Amino acid sequence: MILNHVNLTVTDVSAAADFLEKYFGLRSQGGNNGFRVLFDDRGLVLTLMKGKNVNYPSTFHIGFGQPSEQHVNEINQRLKDDGFEVEPPQRSHAWTFYVQAPGGFSIEVAA
């Protein structure tokens, strides 16, 4: 069995989609300011749906695995350079950091 899609409710569909495309390579295939469909390299479908009050639990996040610690460091630096508040990666269950994405959800980047 394969998980084929996940839906996230977000406060700003366009900003969240642009963020996921720019930093994580997802590809958009249609939608509007209220709903967007994104795809990853393995066929996972991530849909973004507009919501007024987005309130995920504090531990909720989606994750993007990276092939190396260097990739984690590079994404972290790109985010910092573009003005996002991110802590440096640290050794935990992996070489990892979290970022608050536009739209109201968290992302973990790990190798």
UniProtKB/TrEMBL annotation:
Instruction: Tell me the InterPro entries matching this sequence.
Output: Fosfomycin_Res_Enzymes, Glyas_Bleomycin-R_OHBP_Dase, Glyas_Fos-R_dOase_dom, VOC_core
Gene3D superfamilies registered for this protein in UniProt: 2,3-Dihydroxybiphenyl 1,2-Dioxygenase, domain 1
Q: Which residues form the VOC domain?
A: 2-111
Q: Which organism is it from?
A: Ktedonosporobacter rubrisoli
Alphabetical list of Pfam families matching this protein: Glyoxalase
Task: List the protein's name.
Answer: VOC family protein
